[in-house]
Design brief:
2 domains; 21 strands; alpha+beta; Beta-galactosidase, Chain A, domain 5
């Protein structure tokens, strides 16, 4: 555990990024003055002020975006704000709740913390799962009950940054700091008052609909600083997919900076003596309707030409699809609705289907519309469950200007980039750049395109073209060019 305390130390956002080698070149997005949390905004298409241009890219990251699990006004992202490396084994984050349909175990509108656990799923609905190995610093009398031991906290003391989280636990006068490595989570607790301090380790806790438990727990004291053990979770008490998730086992090794005896008595049989009523989830539980024919009926990504033919040809297809977007008001975009319901994945390809029907200008129009009205800032900034990243990934791709209707097809439909220039570094080490000339809120329609300095007449790319590297240049204008990309000869291939 690091003893450095500055923002440039290992226990900090910058230290975290330096250790992971995370370096990203991306457009800088100044937040408009007066923009409220949870309101959708369109990123600027310039680099903004000199101060904004000097701001490191990582400083724009707000891990609290979408971190609500319940709201009467909007669908909820259900993300967690804690520390995790890209593709990291550990997701270390604060817990404000264990039960109910609170899949991440954290909601930004809650004002008490149960503890900090090492495993989380981000943005999932239908209850939750993981949340094992929860720890909580304490002072004063020992309190083992999870609910009884939780601490109020002031939101003003909460800091969430890329790779770093901290908060002041008011009840215990303890500052908690969290960061993560590739296969480990690291916590530092600063006890502000002299006296008895301890760390409560809860091996039974698990996120689930009854705020429940793992069914077996094992722990052993390896040495004065180390505990190792395991926890098993089955379908009793809930879990992901409304209680129909997998049975799994979690193994851990926990090492303390100070000898374990310095924190008070360690008794593996007294870690948490809470009794939980066991509820067995039926295999038939949890069936519910998430979409309707206006939404699910378009989900034929592998054979869009066949769907176009089934619906009566290009004109009928375009008119029917366009009507769904026309009937979805801006105020409905951040909540569940019966038309274009961006809160749920079955519709996420729909704005890009127009490319397949020879109307790419409508993809340009409606992908911008969704970016503007279905995304915002702060805890209410996602229009629905992030579902381990899908809601956020849609925005990243759409804002860059392309999206795969059928991911396995290797074909990406082109849309309308929000940025003047976006560069992707591929797994091969090549760089693919999308440049949008004359781009603005008004100039959202593609007039012409070149790929590698050659005219591009089609409104789609092949995966191999991106991986090879190069530059796609889009000339933008205020009116649609209905000739570009509309010829049936330039339609994307079928996915079958």
């Amino acid at each position: 555990m690091s003893e450095q305390t500055g923002h440039g130390g290992a226990f900090s956002r910058r230290g975290f990024l330096a250790a992971t080698g995370a370096a990203v070149a991306s457009p800088r997005i100044p937040t408009p003055d007066g923009a409220a949390e949870g309101t959708a905004i369109m990123p600027a298409t310039s680099t903004g002020s000199p101060a904004a241009a000097m701001r490191p890219d990582v400083d724009w990251v707000n891990p609290l975006t979408g971190a609500l699990t319940t709201s009467p006004d909007t669908a909820c992202g259900k993300t967690f704000p804690g520390a995790v490396m890209p593709f990291g084994l550990v997701q270390l984050s604060p817990d404000t709740v264990s039960g109910g349909d609170n899949g991440s175990g954290y909601s930004a509108d809650m004002t008490t913390i149960e503890g900090f656990s090492f495993l989380h799923l981000s943005g999932i609905g239908c209850y939750g799962d993981l949340g094992q190995l929860q720890v909580m610093p304490q002072t004063g009398e020992l309190v083992t009950g999870r609910d009884a031991a939780k601490s109020p906290f002031e939101k003003a003391t909460e800091t969430a940054e890329a790779g770093y989280y901290s908060v002041e636990l008011g009840r215990y006068k303890v500052r908690a700091e969290l960061t993560a490595a590739e296969r480990a989570g690291i916590l530092r607790f600063t006890f502000q008052d002299a006296g008895t301090g301890r760390i409560k380790v809860d091996l039974s806790r698990r996120i689930g609909f009854d705020g429940t438990h793992t069914v077996t727990q094992q722990a052993r004291l390896v040495d004065d600083h180390t505990i190792e053990g395991s926890m098993t979770a089955d379908r009793s008490g809930g879990g992901w997919i409304c209680g129909n998730g997998p049975v799994y086992e979690v193994h851990f090794s926990m090492r303390f900076h100070r000898p374990i005896g310095a924190f008070g008595t360690w008794d593996k049989d007294d870690v948490d003596r809470q009794a939980h009523e066991r509820h067995t989830a039926s295999d038939s539980a949890g069936f519910f309707v998430e979409s309707n024919p206006d939404q699910q009926g378009w989900f034929v990504p592998h054979d869009v030409p066949g769907l176009i033919e089934l619906l009566g040809g290009r004109g009928a297809f375009i008119n029917r699809l366009n009507a769904i977007f026309e009937q979805t008001a801006p105020e409905d975009m951040m909540r569940w609705n019966d038309k274009y319901n961006h809160s749920n994945e079955p519709v996420h390809h729909m704005a890009f289907l127009f490319v397949h029907a020879g109307a790419p200008w409508l993809t340009q129009k409606w992908s911008r519309y969704v970016c503007r009205h279905a995304y915002g800032t702060g805890p209410a900034g996602l229009a629905g469950n992030d579902d381990c990243g899908q809601m956020s990934a849609w925005y990243v791709l759409a804002a860059a200007g392309f999206y795969p209707v059928a991911p396995a097809s290797g074909v990406y439909a082109l849309g309308s980039p929000l940025f003047d220039e976006v560069t992707f570094t591929t797994s091969r080490g090549t760089r693919f750049t999308i440049q949008s000339r004359h781009n603005s809120d008004v100039n959202c329609y593609v007039q012409s395109a070149t790929l590698g300095e050659k005219p591009l007449h089609r409104a789609w790319l092949r995966h191999e073209e991106i991986m090879a590297g190069g530059r796609l240049v889009l000339d933008m204008g205020p009116e649609p060019n209905k000739e570009w990309g509309s010829d049936p000869r330039w339609a994307p291939p079928s996915g079958i």
